[in-house]
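Changelog note: in this version the structure field was regenerated for every chain. One regenerated record is shown below for reference.
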Amino acid sequence: MSSLSRELVFLILQFLEEEKFKEAVHRLEQESGFFFNMKYFEEKALAGEWDEVEKYLSGFTKVDENRYSMKIFFEVRKQKYLEALDRQDRAKAVEILVKDLKVFSTFNEDLYKEITHLLTLENFRENEQLSKYGDTKSARSIMLVELKKLIEANPLFREKLVFPTLKASRLRTLINQSLNWQHQLCKNPRPNPDIKTLFMDHSCSPPNGARASTPVTLPVVALTKPLTYAPLGGHGGPFPPAAAAAANANALAGWMSNANPSLSMQSAAVSASPLPVQLSQVSSLKHPRTPSTGLGMIDYPSSDHEQLMKRLRTAQSVDEVSYPPQHASWSLDDLPRTVACTLRQGSTVISMDFHPSHHTLLAVGCSNGEVTLWEVGLRERLVSKPFKVWDVSACSVAFQAAIVKDSSMSVNRVSWSPDGNLIGVAFTKYLVHLYAYQGSNDLRQHLEIDAHIGGVNDLAFSHPNKQLCVVTCGDDKLIKVWDLAGRKLFHFEGHEAPVYSVCPHQKENIQFIFSTAVDGKIKAWLYDNVGSRVDYDAPGQWCTTMLYSDDGNRLFSCGTSKDGDSFLVEWNESEGAIKRTYSGFRKKSTGIAQFDTTRNHFLAVGEDSQIKFWDMDNTNVLISTDADGGLLAVPRLRFNKEGNLLVVTTADNGFKVLANADGLRSLRAIENRSYEASRAPIEMKVSTSAMVTNINPAINKVDRMDASSPARPTQILNGVDPMARSVEKRRLLDDASEKNKRWELAEIVDPVHCRVATMPDSKDPANKVARLLYTNSGAGILALGSNGVQKLWKWRSNEQNPSGKATASVVPQHWQPNSGLLMTNDVPENCEEAVPCIALSKNDSYVMSACGGKVSLFNMMTFKVMTTFMSPPPASTFLAFHPLDNNIIAIGTEDSTIHIYNVRVDEVKTKLKGHQKHITGLAFSVNLKIMVSSGADAQLCFWNMDTWDKRKSVTIQLPAGKVPVGDTQVQFYSDQTRLLVCHETQLALYDAAKAECIRQWMPQDVLPAPITCAAYSPNSQLVYAAFTDGNIGVFDADSLKLRCRIAMSVYLAQASPSSQTVYPLALTAHLQEPYQFAVGLTDGSVKVIEPSEAEGKWGVLVPVDNGTQNGWTATSSTNNPAS
C-alpha cells in the first residue's frame, strides 16, 4: 500500500470519528494496523474486557511476534487469570491456564509450573511475588503502566501511537476541492450546481447560456450512513491498488520467523511480573536499532507470518526520513576493468581474499594446499605456506587414515578476519588452519582444527557473544562454530546434503548464519540449539553462495545447477522470496559460477571466460570484459574493500589484477614508495641532539625541502612503540621501508599549484564557520555558522563535472528550497558562548544541529524544522548518531555530561558522567563496541556501547607546563581501532583498544601555531590539520610525518583588511576523494581545496642518500624538538 493510500485510511478514521461511528473507527484501526488507539485500549483494559483487548491487539501483533509482544499478552492473560482466582472462579482460572497461558510453558516451564501452583493456594497473595497484589482496579492500573511501556518499546508499534495532525473535516475538504475542480471543467458551469452523488464525476447539465463558475461546497452535516465512493482521481489517481505496493518489512521477518535470541543476552526481571525477559534483542532487523533499556522480551519462533506482513508491508522505518532517494552518481569508470598486472601463482588458484584495510594485500589459496600472501601493488609474493599437518597426533584417526590413503590437499577457502589479524583456511580434507598475520611477511601458525569429516567446504568469521569466532561447514552436512582456542561453541545439523557455503551476518543485535547445501536448500540459524529457522530452495537447487552488500542491507545469491544453468538473484528477506533475477548467463556452464559485490551498487560474476558486471538495481548485464583474455572458463574473482581493485583467476595458474583509475593510482603510489625505498640505504640511529643541531636554519626558506615532521613517541612508552598487532596491520610496506625513506615536504604557497573553489554566498565576517560537513553522497557541503544558520552547497552533474561529485574545478550552487527557507537554529540571546554542533543522517535526508538552544531536526529537502528537543539547560555542544541505530543520539552538553537520547520515544535513556568541562567530540567504534568522548578538559573517556559503562579515562599528554584545557576532537581511523585526537597543542594517534597514545606530533618548524581542527582522509592514509596562522598541514596518517604545507596565500587572494588573521575554524575531508578537503574560515567563507591535476596528490617521495638530501640532515622520525 502506498503512503497516500495509508494517509487515506487516516482521513477515513477522522471522518468516522467526526461522524461518531465509534465501533467502525476501532475496527478500522485494528484491521489496518496503522494507528493504535492507546486511549481505547486503556478503557477496555481497565474495564476488564479481555477478549476485546486481545482482539484489538491482534491487529498489531501476535503473541509470539517478538519478546515485547510476548510480554504484552502474558501481562494481559496473567491479570485475567489472577482475577479469576481472586473471585474464586477456579473453573475459569483452569480454562485460562490451559487455553491462554499454556503457550508460555514452551519458553519458561518453571514459570508455568509456578502459575499453576497458584491454583492450590487459598489466596494467591500467599505467593511472595504476588503478596503486594491489591484489589482488581489498582492491579489493572499497575498492569497498564507496564503495558504502555512495552507497547512504546515494541518496534511493531513504531509510528502507530500518534495520530497525524489534521485539520478538521480534512476528507470533506479534499472532496470539495475535487468537486470544485470538476466544476471548473464543466463546459457550461452553473452558478449553483446541484451535487447529488459522489459516485460519478460532477458535470452541469447544458443550460441555455453560459454562466460563471461557482465554488462547490459539500454541506457539512451528519450523515445517517457513511458515503462510499470511488477512489479520488478516478482512473490513474494517486492511490494505487494495495497489491501494487512493495512490502517494506523488516529483514528476516519472514525468513527467521521471529527468531530466538542469541545466548549472549542477559536476563532481567521486569517489575510487577515474574516472567523473565532478555535485553537487547529485537525481531525487526531491516535497519539497526537499539531497543529501550530496561525492557526486553524473547523472540519466539512462529510459522505464521501473515499478520506480521500485514502490519509491516507499509511500515516506514524511523531510522531515516522517507524522501526522494538521492543515489550517489556512478559511471562505468568506477568498475575496475583495466588490467594492471598478471601474476603467476604456479598452481591453480582456488580462493582469494583482500585484507580488510590494507587494500592491496591479497591472500591466495591453491589446489596444492599452498597459502600465499601477495602485495599486488609491488607484484611481489611476500610469503608462501605449503600445506602440512601441524600436529598429526592431535588429529582424528579418521583424518590420519584419509591422509595416508590420499595425501593430496587443496584449499577450499581463504578468508581474512574482520580485523585483519588472522587468515582462515579451509581444506578439502577435515582441517582448518588459522594463521596470525603480524605485518610485513610474518605469517605464523595460530590454530589447527580437525573440523569436519570429509571436506571443509567453507569458512567465515563471526562475532557471537561479542567474541571473534570461526564458522565452518563440510561434507558431513554440519555447520560448526569455533572460538580462537579451537573449542567448538555451536554445532548445527539439519541439512540432508553436504553444506556448500556459510554466510554469517548481523542485523541489529541478532547474529545469524545462512547456509546452503548441494541439494539447493537454504537454511538460517541463530546461535542456539533450536534448529534452522528457514528452509528454502535456491535457484538451480545445487551449489549456491550467498553474500550481503557492503552495507549489509541487501542479500544476493549466485549458483549453478547440475545442468550448468547459472543463477544470480537478490532476495527479499522479509518474505524469503526472490526479489530480482539477473539475466545474461550462457545456457550451459562448465563450472560453478562465483560472484562478489562492491560499493553497494555492483555485482560481478565470472562466467564464459569473462567477468560480467550488473548494476544491483538492473537485471540486465551492465558490461562485461575478458580482461585481455586468458581467463578460466568459470573464473573466480574478488574485489578489494574499496572496490577499486578486482582479482580474477587465469587459465595458466595465476591471476590478473584489474583496477579503475583510483586503483591504478594506488598501485602506482606503492610502486613509487618501493622504488624510493629500494634506493635508500639502511639508516643508522642517531641521537636526538645530533639530529637537532644538524638541521640548517635556512631550511624554512625553500619551497621544497626534506624536513619530515617528527612523530614523537609518548613519555609513558619509554621510547617503545606499543602499537598492537591489530593497529599494525596496514603497515605492510611502511614497517619495512619507514626508516629507509623520507618525504620531501611540499610547500605550496602559490595558488597555481592547487585548485581552490570558494562557495558562493559564503563570506560573512559576522558568521564564522563553526562546523563543516560533506554530505554522504559526496555531492554537497553543509556549513553551520556561529549564528546558528546552516548553508548547503550542491554540485550538479554536467559536462564539466560528469560525476556530479564535489570538486574544486567547478563552483557549486548555493542551494535553497523554492520557499526560500533558511535552516536556522534556536539561538539564545547571549549566543557568543554557544557551541554550534551538527550531525547528518546516513542518507542525507535530515540534519540535526544546535547552537546554544534546542536541538533542531531539519528536512534537507525543504529546510523545514521537523522537530526540536533537548531544551537547555544544559545546552548541547556535540551531536553524534549511534552507528547502528539512527533513533539513538549521543548528545554532549555544556555541563560535561553525555545524554544517550532516544528520538523515537523522546526520552534520555542514560546520562554519562566522566568529564569536567563541556563535551567537544564523540566517536564510535562498532568493532571495539566503544564510544570515545573528548572534552574541553583535555580528557578522553572510553564507554561501553552496550552498557554505557565507562571503561577508562585518560588525559591527553600535554607539553610541560600546559594546563589541561582546550577543545579536543576525536575521529576513528578506518580500521576503527586507531583514534585520531586533535588538540590545539598536538595531533595524536591512540590505540583505542588499550586507550594508549602511540604517536604524537606537536606544532613546530614551519607549522608552529596552535591547531584548530583536523580530519582523516577517506582512506585514512592522510590527516589534514588547520592552524591559527592560516596554514594547513597534510600528514601521513600512520607516522604523523608532515607531507605538505599549504600556505594561507593559496586559498585567500588577499589578506584580510582587518587586523585579525583569517584562518580555518572547521575542516572536513571528502568521503570518497582522498586528496580533497574543505575548510570553513573565520570570515564565514568556505573553500574546497585539491591538488593541481598535474600533481594529483599532496607531497612527493624522494630518495635519500646517506641520510641527507641537498645538504640537509634528515630529522629523526622518533624525536621531537621542544615545543
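Spot check on this record: The mean pLDDT is 80. The first strand starts at residue 267 and ends at 269.
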